[in-house]
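Recall the central idea of this unit: under ordinary conditions, the amino acid sequence of a chain determines the structure it adopts. In this exercise we apply that idea directly, starting from the sequence alone.
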Amino acid sequence: MSRIILFLLCFCRLGLPAQDVHFSQFYNAPLSLNPALCGAFDGDQRFAATYRNQWGSVPVPYETFFGAYGQKVFQPWLGDNWLGLGGAFTYDQAGDAALSWLQLAIISSFNWKAGDGHVLSSGLQLRFGQRALEPGQFNFADQFTDNFFDPGAPTAESFASTSSGYFSLGAGLNWFYQPEDTRTRAWAGLGATHLNQPSISFLGEGNVEVPLLFNFHASGILEMTARWDLAVNLLGQGQGAYREIIGMAGGRYHLSLEKGRELALLLGAGYRLSDALVGYLEVFYANWRFGLSYDVNTSPFIAATNRNGGPEFSVQYVISHVKPPKEFKACPIF
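Accordingly, the structure predicted from this sequence is:
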């Protein structure tokens, strides 16, 4: 059987409609989960980026980069409510043929302040995606001549296209709890992507639909003492035949509570069901948040990975604007 047949079986029918990219630090890439999370955070503007290098022990590891920006938009006609506007960029590459997945998204949300620290939000997302590969990196059976393989020999195998693009719609709902005078916070929501069931293919015909992606996510930070917080994160998602459930928990200790120089460390662990153990460390300094995690593979794929999953790095920067007072008092002139 030629390598092209093997490729079509492994990638065009399985890889193309497979799950979207996923992260162990999913809570640090909120706009990859749910557009309703655009605007559901402390602060006014948020920059975020995540890099993942998975299965470094295999010949060609999987590399993924995610970047996002979101901001709150306040208008007088919205009252105490606000809009969320943002965008996201995702690039994923893997395999000998540099099979890549580029995704660009425009995101918007409406955040309704329900009172007593509760905020309900709904969001929409328009995403453009493109799959691409470099078939010149493949070897085919007809390149064997006289029992010898010649990588420079011509081949009759061909592709109708080496890239395929699509547009995708996403939506979501979220609940955000942000009481005053405490570090306690909570988020819970539902997100859905590929609602319009787009299709992609490298063949001239027989397009393959990208399955719907649904997820439920919940995160919480509970202030335990003046210095200690408990952080918990949970994600469950499904896309076609693929399912993922991951839970993370850790303790955060505040080394400094000085305004503008806050410093805290968080150490925790998690488990991706039937797949990997995850250990992670986070550093919080003022408006910055840095995360480092590492997966230890526990699935049957350990035969190829030797239990090595992959490192993941994340960074966030939040900008908070000084709000004008709601009431002004005139100063009398003497």
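The chain has a mean pLDDT of 85.
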